Amino acid sequence: MSLYLAVAGMPVNVFMILGLGATVGVLSGLFGVGGGFLLTPLLMTYGIPPAVAAASDSNQIVAASCSGALAHKRLGNVDVKMGLTFLAGSILGGTAGTQLVRVLRGFGNYDVVVKIVYVLLLAAIGGFMFWESLQALRGKTKNVQGKGFFARLVGRLPWQVYFPVSGVRVSVLFVVGLGFLVGALAALLGVGGGFITVPAMIYLLRMPTIVAIGTDLFQIVFTSMNVTFQQAITNHTVDVVLAVLLFCGSTVGAQVGARLSRLFRGEQLRIILAVIVLLVMLKLFVDLVSAPADLITLTTGGGGH
Amino acid sequence: MLRRVAIIVTVALLLGVLSGPAAALAAPAVTLTTDTPAVEVGLRYAGTTVRFAGKCPPGSDVYVRVLGPVGKTSLSKRGQKGGVWLTVETVTVSNAPRFFWLLGSADPAALPAGLQQATGLAPGYRALYEQVKVTALSGEEPVRVPPREAEAYITGLIKINERRGLYGFAPQAIRVNGDSFMGTLHLPAGVPRGDLQMVAYAVKDGRLLGTASATLPVQGVGFVKWLGETAQHRAVQYGAMAIVVALAAGLTVAELFRRINACLGGKGEGELTGGH
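The joint structure predicted for all components is written out below.
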């Protein structure tokens, strides 16, 4: 059964799009990542114009993250206080990062550096998470956040606040600062930041894995709403029908993912997420070093998580 | 003598005046019609085939050029920098038709170069290379890309559009039978909305005998029309609507699953805290 998309200007197979949405929704509910890294390229492979694929993906992430965040909220996995504090920092960081990009583009090899930094960052995050989770699974370590120098330093910062859902006491300055860094990094690298946010919440804010995932989904609702609106008024590339089809699949998938997450322990979820991060890193690395089939392509829009 | 000459000249002039329109009436004019006045693009549109036909002078070859509305396209070039492949330039290609097909009863490559140039029937999309403009951003200002580089972008755009069935060349797609011709034009699913301008050329012995044109509107209807217009012309409302629809869907599905879970006697809320 096919349906014509008014903004994309082409018909799609309804069941294919529903299936793609459901797959990405499960990942979103399980790991707290938006799924843009997977869905946008899949839609482009299907023939959707790149700008429409990225913008409509952001729109479906609004629905999927909203559905997933609610499911996690009911399970007690969303730290609203932490999420809003982190979000305030990441919005400021995103704005600063966007301005910084304009300045850095004046320097010659900015794009090359950004791409390499992103691959290295993913390799470091994925590698560390994999190693740490493996150690935890083997029972060699109970807690990765020992009272080291860094933890003691953070503990001395002013405005220490208790976040009951996460069960951590930490300085608001540190949370906002971390949000700022993640937001700025996401803007500099041109990615949504889910891969950076969840590990940052787990390892630096000491949040339980499942709460980090739920809280990340909660803040993605707001960031993806902003991206959708900007894409709609600037580029006119949000295809609501495509997004509806995608989120019919992804909202259900996100619910399934959130419930599936109950079957895993924190370290098990982290090791699967680590593998996904490493696979994405590998794909980016291959894209960087292998010659493309076509040198001239349609330009991809921004967005995604 | 003078009177005889005057009579001959008068008769000759009369014959000339009278024979002109008569000859014109006798010569078969070139015509072009399609089997549908417009292509309607609704929710179930998945591409269509349009039949066209017309009259032409006997013995002539017929070529039909179909051009879609022109527009802007953003293209990126991948290149090697510091040992890695990445986007090295992004340009805007403007004045390029979104649809371009050349159909004929014979190969237009055999036509004289002057005629190819005048009619735009040159194979290899040569006409496109002359009319398309390629610009890149230098700071805030768009600057024209040098011809050699621009050519690479136009070739890239042609390849992309050929793969999508939007550009093509079919030298044997038209059948001429005496003083009439007919052919088919396939409009792919991604055909752009707007007017398709069709021009038929009748050519014999390298001479253009006549042309005819027709307009084939490709228009959105119903929901497709409303949605397309809203996205373009009422972007703020459209953006807000996209967010509201997505939030409503997310909330609805979450509530639906909560009830399903409750009905199935699943685990209650807040049962899981997870963690390390």
